[in-house]
Amino acid sequence: MQRLMQISSHLYPLAGVAALQEKRPDDVVVTMAIRSPLTKAKKGALKDALQQVIAYSHVDPASVGDICVGTVLTPDPVYHARSAALAAGFPETVPIQVVNRFCSSGLMATTIIANQIRSGQIEIGLAVGVESMSQNPDKGAPPQSESISANATAKDCLAPMGWTSENVAQDYNISRDDMDNFAAQSFQRAEHAEKSGYFTKEIVPFTVSVNDKDPVTGTTSRRRVTVTKDDGIRYGTTKENLLKIRSAFPQWGYGRTTGGNACQITDGAAAVLLMTRRKAEALGLTILGKHVSTAVTGLPPRVMGIGPVYAIPMVLKNAGLDVSDVDLFEINEAFASQYVYCVQKLGLNLDKVNVNGGAIALGHPHGCTGVRLIVTGLSELQRRNGKVLVTSMCIGTGMGAAAVFVRDA
């Protein structure tokens, strides 16, 4: 046994963060991480996002082996994705696929591309997360058959997300005061980050068409505008301000969820370019970090918001890490109730979690968020000279997902 341990130590001399920082030719690395501004209006589209990818990627678009788009509400998504890629300038030879796992769709797109690269199917791949919630509003769950609805847990999958937020607040005794305190912190951190220019490296400007309606004549005209920053951040937000907002769902639980402590309805797009380290070095590209592992888990649909409580320990175990090894967490703020519970249950240091605000302040375009967390996290990890990033989110119908990324030393 001692001899086996000596051999293992010789073959794998490093453990934990040090082991993950070792550079291998087959590492799946990120060479581009960009996003659009997150906006409330009908600004931005998948075609615009893909055009920005071509402009910022520094690779021949023909070299991309596959594109995977995470989106949730888009009708006929494959038609939209394929036509958008062609219109943006990707050649006909570049294929595209679409994935929908609700709020984790962007992370799933990233994971699919990473696994394709890791298995040798492709050498370069593009993961995109996109959602236009203004053009495609969430209509809720479709009707189900009586045989499915007869199962209590299956029936919970169809319930509104606001109901699940109130269940978390009630079941785990999350107070309105705590929820509004955390929500205010999200706005304050996002305001500080924006004013300090922290988002400028990750946001690429989008020039879009908007409609103007003359209040007198009623006629509509179109004009082109360039959008450069998020528009959901409410400057000067305090807990006291938020406590004045009435309950959004007084019919459920304690009615502690409000329009001020829940994620905003937003449009946005984000993209990451992945490839082997070997290929990145051959092309002379800057490596932002590498994908280590992704974990997905299931849980009761009625408290779907606590998904990160299960997914984060799972992905850390897969990566051989402890919570103390992580420099930054980006956890989606679907609702303050679930965010508060996840942070408290996992015992996370708030100085490491959503340091530049989250979805309560910035918005949560469903398909975009999984990639947006990676983009924001890697940018901040570089600014802080950190090593390990964990992204995580809850998922409608009762799931959770998390991923580990390591910045190149």
Written description of the protein model:
This protein has a domain at 2-136 and 263-404: Peroxisomal Thiolase, Chain A, domain 1. The protein has 15 helices and 11 strands. The chain has helices at 2-11, 16-20, 46-57, 77-88, 105-118, 146-149, 152-156, 161-171, 176-195, 239-243, 277-283, 307-319, 336-346, 359-362, 366-384, and strands spanning 28-35, 66-70, 96-99, 124-132, 206-213, 220-227, 267-276, 289-298, 328-331, 388-395, 399-406. The chain has a 9-stranded mixed β-sheet, sandwiched between helices. The two termini are 35 Å apart. The model is unreliable at 1-13 (pLDDT under 50).
As a whole number of angstroms, the C-alpha radius of gyration is 21 Å
Mean pLDDT: 93
Globally, the shape reads globular
Q: How many helices?
A: 15
| Main sheet properties | 9 strands, mixed
> Ends: how far apart?
35 Å
- As residue ranges, the low-confidence spans are 1-13
Give the spatial strand order of the biggest sheet.
3-2-4-7-1-8-11-10-9
Count of individual beta strands: 11
SS-derived structural category:
alpha/beta
**Beta-strand fraction estimate:** 15-25%
CATH superfamily of the domain at 2-136 and 263-404: Thiolase/Chalcone synthase
CATH architecture heading of the domain at 2-136 and 263-404: 3-Layer(aba) Sandwich
CATH topology of the domain at 2-136 and 263-404: Peroxisomal Thiolase, Chain A, domain 1
Secondary structure: helix percent: 25-40%
**At the first level of CATH, what is the class of the domain at 2-136 and 263-404?**
Alpha Beta
Q: SSE string, helix = H, strand = E?
A: HHEHEHEHEHHHHEEHEHEHEHHHEE
